[in-house]
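ESCALATION

Customer reports they have been waiting on this structure for their group meeting. Please prioritize. Original submission:
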Amino acid sequence: MKRWILLSVTFLFLLCCLGCSRKGGITAAIPDPDTGSSKEPVRYVGSEEADIKYHDGRLRPAVGVQSYEVLHCNRTHPQLADGFGWTYNHAPNIAYWNGNFYVHYLSNPVEEHKGGGHTLLCHSIDGKNWSFPEVIFPVYHMEGEDYVLMHQRMGFYIAENGRLLVSGFYGIPTGPGDSPQLGNGIGRVVREVYANDAFGPIYFIRYNRHCGFNKDNTNYALYSSSGDAGFVAACNELLSKKLITQQWWEEDRSKDGFYAIEADGTEADGGFECEALSFYHRKDNAVVGLWKKGWVALTYNEGLSWTKPVVCPTISDNSSKHWGRRTDDGRYAMLYNPDERRFPLMVVTGEDGILFDNKLVVNGEVPVRRFRGRFKDVGNQYVRGIVEGNGDPPGDDMWVTYSRSKEDIWVSRIPVPVRSSVEKDVNDDFENMTAGGMVAGWNIYCPKFAPVEVVEAGGKYLRFSDTARYDYAKAVRVFSQSSDVVDIRFKVRALQTDSGEFDVEIVEKRGLRPVRVVFNESGEIKVNNGSSIIKAGSYQAGIWYTIKIHADVTAQEYGLYIDDKTVITGAGFADSVDSVERIEFRTGKYRLDEDRYGYNEGADYPDADEAVEKAVFDIDDFHWGDRL
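Update from on-call: job pushed to the front of the queue and completed.
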């Protein structure tokens, strides 16, 4: 009996340690001696998991993320996209240099691993407004090959002498998937980006000599033949950085001793294919390397040698990329997709680069994939951030780039510290914000043809302008979580009554939407009463309306008031919830189970390149608090 009591007390003590003791957002569990070692370099210890039946995974958003579309492909009107009308755009990288953000990405005419591919470059002062794409590495024509493909796991390098190098790989498609990264390519090219946004000549920085390529049978000379000593020095420096160049292995695959890890996916190395390395320095100076499919390893000498790569079972083992970095607050962040469906794009955070929790959404929007093509996985994927040494933008924000369904290119600005909640009243009149600048405190989803931004005309307010056929503009304001009564007040104006839709929804932590108000394309205001949608009034173009929502979580009901006039009271929640914590404004219906799955090679979506009639909605003077 005494033994049974002792075991019971010990068990209860362990439960308390595992479930109750918290420090810095990480569970202070009984430490596993393998955690943080080469046997398990990283571990996710949080309780949140994504429900991939929903595009946002039913996870909370990271507060204040601003997501902007860099490229929206358009086959019919290429002047609105890239000048070519190509609809496969993927694998972006990002850097910050000379007061500008730079993003480069590869592009093919229609689909993955088909057609002569090239790489394009865009730049931006603010990360929101991006230049028209320019070809940085053109299509490579080679006798005896139908086409050569660009492929790149690494994009930029800022040398100690201040030179910005941009890099890519010319690959020859081989194997059943026509893959350009299996070691049979021509080699890795490099060129310099100048301060005036002009480009230097293209050179090879490394030939695939084991495939027979050299200066005598390729289109570009070796970098060392350049007469620019600073450029040559920058290239030599890059070649000496084993952490950076380890990213090249997958495409190069030479066995000449240049790479510390030479993994080819055979049984001898446990199937490790060494794909798409990202890395960060821990506080103990160990470097954590993250590859595709959940592979992780450590290096204690800046990439000269590595521990044996292992699969960490608590993080996703999908084949889209993982990204990790130390954030400006001294903590750590890791971004990835939950599984092979590649949505949502999530972030987890931690104190030491070993334990991570608090799984949050960065971008969970998944509109339809407009253009079909093989291997065009759906979702926000192949995330890359600014590699250590590749620039530090103003402020503490973390910037990442990724592709949307392998056809559009996006960036997201993630405020640091990364957080899921707001603990104070919200009063936003937008007057202290810069017109066209960051919408402070708000989560902004800003497609190229459905922008959300602060405008100024007789005062400042938030404007939603939408001509996107298959997407919408969206803004979310997180407020303090409440399981009691909340009052929300804001002003809204539509500039038309015969086009577009404006949805306003109160949302709880899992994404349930108990309160819904819709300004529809027929000039009607509709609301929910339980699961039913009923007409509550009408609206006119150009008129500001003051909306107040009184939501009672305890009673599971709400009231709606317009210009202090009662519209509806005692209306039932559409979803049963135990709290509410944010409000969502959108120029379209909430997306549920649209076309987000598989590799369907069928027809493109109808009129995918054509705009719809413009609809504009404004909001102002948003307030949340008790008993407004």
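Sent to customer with the following note: The helical segments are 2-19, 229-240, 242-245, 249-252.
Escalation resolved.
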